[in-house]
Design brief:
mainly alpha; single chain
């Protein structure tokens, strides 16, 4: 591989470095943040039915209590709103203060709020839900910071040959986070079910929810803080990335020393070259300039629109898979279970989907992203998500019949598989590569925030849209919707639109970050 003589020696050393231990250390440190992010964002869907039974079951009801629409949407969506705000704020801060300084803040916020959300207090259901929503907002705020910072740190540490795989591997830890949340819920609910025997709701409504079940959701939510807390020490020991130190902070000597230590080689500091770069007019434009719009406007539109469209489909699928499973009978009818058994059944379904399709999809991306490229994977992923979504939606009645339920689960799993071996991974990778170092974290934060806006649309919109067209069959408090079948058709159309927007996103495979972001390093325009 040729050395770029115009580039700084420290950046060339990183681009051409052989894959070594520090790469894997960086993947684990950054990836554990993502593990926690996924755990915290998706574990809530395991316990919302339990919260409904605990706090909203009325003595005279013929079926278990469910969270009222506003409460359900808030508990599910408030962390996403916090995440959106955190992505914008910490993305901007990461370019202003440096990646490393901000990285510790986000982790502390995640750990504290993860524990606090499990300690939500109150004498009334409203009090408990309000404190839960408050802490989940700030938990989301910390999680939001992890998106731009983890991606940027990994992209700036990686070599150019395997950079895509390294960033995707950080993101792939999300799959393990979703899997782990299911496993924790399975173990916790199985333990409580064994210790506190209870009749089903149909047998005895009052006794079907044991008082001790209140601990279950708290344990599940608090457990998410553990992996993040374990990596705090190593996060603080990581040196600042050389690209930030040299190209943004303009400290050539420190960048050379830091990376020399990491790579265990002698690197020349080249202070004169850094001085020359800092005077170069072509590297001075800001985010709100015509020059940025000319060079990167279409790219930013591409990364924002594809992430926005993907997350509408991805989050509505993920957060509401328990409703889809109930509709096709994979989770038994609520009155036939007690509260703890219901948590177990929902967790089992989510764990199986994560194990069979979500996790493998992520690692397929890791394996192939530097071989077939980001563009091809994203286009292919959107295409197959569209195909499988329509294949589920159009003959929807066929899939609800007892004989065809396994077929339905297989088709549903494939949409997950191609989301993860597709746009869910690539939309995270590309914004960390195609923007200049001084705007990289900010632009990744903006792209990720567009994604979370899509997630909010998916989470809130699907909740109402998926209600039955027949007003007598809707969940308590909900207006009639367009039904699950029509909701799935809408999601299919959204995936098809994502395919078109992918054409705005450039390919960055095999390029250095400076080439991919069109950053002139030589001091010449």
């Amino acid at each position: 591989m040729a050395v770029d003589d115009n580039n700084l020696q420290v950046l060339n050393a990183l681009d051409l470095a052989k894959t070594q231990l520090y790469h894997f250390t960086a993947i684990i440190i950054a990836g554990m943040g993502f593990f926690t992010d996924a755990y915290d964002l998706f574990s809530i869907s395991l316990v919302t039915k339990l919260l409904g039974r605990l706090y909203y079951t009325k003595p005279d009801l013929l079926k278990p209590g469910t969270l009222p629409p506003v409460v359900s949407a808030s508990v599910t969506g408030v962390a996403l709103v916090g995440t959106l705000a955190g992505q914008l704020f910490f993305g901007w801060l990461g370019d202003k203060m440096g990646r490393k300084k901000v990285y510790g803040m986000t982790l502390v916020l995640m750990v504290v709020c993860s524990v606090a959300s499990g300690l939500s207090l109150g004498n009334t259901p409203k009090g408990v839900m309000t404190t839960l929503c408050f802490f989940r907002f700030w938990l989301g705020f910390g999680i939001g910071g992890d998106y731009p910072l983890s991606a940027t740190i990994m992209s700036e540490y990686a070599n150019k040959k395997t950079r895509g795989a390294f960033i995707a591997a950080v993101f792939a830890m999300q799959g393990f986070g979703i899997l782990f949340s299911g496993i924790v819920a399975l173990i916790t609910s199985a333990g409580f079910d064994h210790a506190y025997k209870a009749p089903t709701f149909a047998e005895n409504a009052a006794l079907s929810t044991v008082p001790q079940a209140d601990y279950i959701w708290r344990i599940i939510l608090m457990f998410g803080s553990l992996p993040a807390a374990l990596t705090y020490y190593w996060r603080m020991k990581m040196p600042e990335t050389a690209r930030y130190t040299a190209l943004v902070a303009k400290d050539a000597k420190r960048a050379a020393q830091d990376m020399g230590r990491v790579l265990q080689v002698e690197i020349e500091s080249e202070e004169a070259k850094v001085e020359q770069i800092s005077r170069d007019e072509t590297n001075q434009f800001g985010l709100f300039s015509w020059e940025f719009v000319r060079r990167h406007g279409l790219h930013l539109f591409g990364t924002c629109s594809t992430w926005f469209l993907l997350d509408i489909a991805f989050y509505s699928q993920n957060l509401f898979q328990k409703d889809v499973f109930s509709a096709v009978g994979w989770i038994p009818k609520a009155p036939t279970m007690n509260a703890v058994q219901e948590v177990y059944k929902i967790a089992r379904a989510q764990t199986l989907i994560a194990l069979c399709s979500t996790v493998p999809g992520y690692w397929f991306t890791v394996a192939f992203i530097d071989i077939i490229g980001r563009f091809a994977i994203q286009l292919m992923g959107f295409f197959f998500m569209t195909v499988f979504m329509f294949a589920i939606a159009i003959p929807y009645h066929h899939w609800t019949l007892d004989a065809n339920r396994i077929g339905f689960i297989v088709m549903y799993s494939f949409t997950f598989f191609f989301a993860n071996f597709g746009p869910n991974a690539t939309t995270f990778v590309v914004p960390a590569e195609i923007f200049p170092a001084r705007l990289r974290s900010t632009c990744h934060g903006i792209s990720a925030a567009a994604g979370k806006a899509g997630a909010i649309v998916g989470a809130y919109g699907f909740l109402y849209a998926a209600q039955s067209k027949d007003p007598t069959k809707t969940d308590a408090g909900y207006p009639a919707g367009i039904g699950i079948k029509n909701s799935l058709i809408v999601l299919g159309c959204i995936n098809a639109l994502g395919m078109l927007c992918t054409f705005c996103v450039p390919e960055s495979k095999g390029k250095s970050l400076e080439e991919a972001s069109q950053e002139t390093i030589s001091g010449e325009a």
